Amino acid sequence: MYNSYKFFIITKEEYMDLDKFKYIVCIAEEKSFTKAAQKLYISQPALSQYVATIEDQFKTKFFDRSCNPLKLTPAGEIFIKKALEIINLKKELWRDLEDSSNNKIVTFSIGISPNRSPYILPLFIP
């Protein structure tokens, strides 16, 4: 039996390059556009332009630029939290796919009566 998947169309406004989430995370970690650009090996104007595009897309600011060092706005804190979750999910997805392609994942079935399972299964499954 196959699972059915629903595909949907992503509009230009909804599209975000997930790899670039790390740009905003890096700025938050470094508390500086310049330091983050150096760490990411991209120009500072390109990084600023990317952040401005994302901020325009969400119609909010992620960084309080009046502070030195930079501070996250409440919206920025939410974005960073969710971006880190997405980045970690992406890493987990790649790891799981790699494990499955390397035959590291094994599926097996156990048949046991319901009356005996509470006594026998704990011996095998922690």
From TrEMBL:
Leader sequence segment: none
Keyword annotations: DNA-binding, Transcription, Transcription regulation
Domain HTH lysR-type: 16-73
GO molecular function terms attached to this record: DNA binding; DNA-binding transcription factor activity
InterPro entries named among the record's database cross-references: LysR_HTH_N, WH-like_DNA-bd_sf, WH_DNA-bd_sf
Family: Belongs to the LysR transcriptional regulatory family.
Official protein name in the record: Transcriptional regulator, LysR family
Protein species of origin: Cetobacterium somerae ATCC BAA-474
